Amino acid sequence: MSIPPSLQTWTVVDDGKHNAFTDLFHWRGQFWLAYVSSPSHFASQHSRVVLLRSDDAQHWQEMARFSGNGEDIRDPKLGVVNGQLFLYALLNKRFDPEPYKTIAAHSNDGLHWTQFQDVTPTGWLLGRPVTADNVTCFAPAHRIDHGTAALLRSNNGVTWDMHAAIHAGDRADETAIQLLADGNLLAVTRLEAGGGIFGNAQAGTLISSAQSPFTEWTQLGWSKVTRLDGPTLVRHGQRVYALGRRQVRVARPLLGQGSVLGRKRSALFVVESGELIHLMDLPSAGDTSYPGAVIVNEKLFVSYYTNDARRDPSWLIGMLKPTRIQMAMIDLKILEETK
After folding, report:
1. pLDDT, position 279
2. Which of 200, 260, 328, 337 has the maximum number of C-beta atoms within 10 A of its C-beta?
């Protein structure tokens, strides 16, 4: 693929393991990157969440490593609650992963961490939290049996209360939220529809929004551009960018949206008028996505994982192969001048 002039990429981790499920945060003037190191995409007692720190997003230092205490651990998310850095992760017992609970640890300095605690209410898998006032936090969540996406609320980062339903049905799954310049909340939700290993023609991404106090959600659109697996949202001024997994080709019967046989990319979109507009693919292939994103000095920094992009394996084959952690930097001034 050709590299847009606004994009630079480099490798952070390439050690022969299946490194996946990233999140990226900027806290106290430094970049913090969490990812999972495991033998494959599938469940393993040997999986570990690794936390790295960097001043420039290029030179990284390992700060901590977390196990699931004999269980598979995956899907880390970072956030700040009451001035402390929180790490959320999911525990899983099934070989073909179906996480069953969220756990959390927190730290004052990123080096010394509390033990993991179970996050309540049970039965919900948390996404990345946001806060407007540094006191009350909101987090997206979906039910462990799929089918319901909701907004939770907390003042301590561990005990959460149900605040509002975002969407019920259509195998609603992972959700990301972003505070807008006008104080509203925007959400994107992965909708698997009927699901299945060959995907589904009705799968896609739900885009919805809510005005404060975020109890009533309005559907803005159901995008069929992609089923945005591992969604992330980030705002630059009035513009909101979405990142996640894109399937290169969708076709019946074996290449429905979300098919394990499809070729995948980690991709950047802009959210406009209830739709996802594709801007670019990051250098990626196979088992890829779950990006983290932060904006620093007009630069969009994105962490993600991928197989060797030169080989372009199917998603299924990529799940069994080594993956690397990549970093991308997108100059938003150049991007927005050319789009």
Report:
1. 97
2. 328
3-state secondary structure the chain: CCCCCCEEEEEEECCCCEEEEEEEEEECCEEEEEEEEECCCCCCCCCEEEEEEECCCCCEEEEEEEEECCEEEEEEEEEEECCEEEEEEEEECCCCCCCCEEEEEEECCCCCECCCEECECCCEEECCCEECCCCCEEEEEEECCCCEEEEEEECCCCECEEEEEEEECCCEEEEEEEECCCCCEEEEEEECCCCCCCCECCCEEEEEEECCCCCCCEEEEEECCCCCCCCEEEEECCEEEEEEEEECCCECCCECECCCCCCEEEEEEEEECCEEEEEEECCCCCCCEEEEEEEECCEEEEEEEECCCCCCCCHHHHHHCCEEEEEEEEEHHHHHHHC
Extents of the domains making up the chain: 7-338
Tokens of 31: 């970049």
* Average model confidence (pLDDT) across the chain: 96
CATH 2.120.10.10 fits 7-338, yes or no: yes
Q: Which residue has the higher pLDDT, 261 or 2?
A: 261
CA distances 108 to 84, 260, 292, Å, are 5, 41, 21
Residue 75's CB is within 10 A of a number of other CB atoms, namely 25
- Average of pLDDT values for 270-281? 96
Kindly report whether the global pTM for this prediction surpasses the value 0.90.
yes
Task: Say what the pLDDT of residue 1 is.
Answer: 57
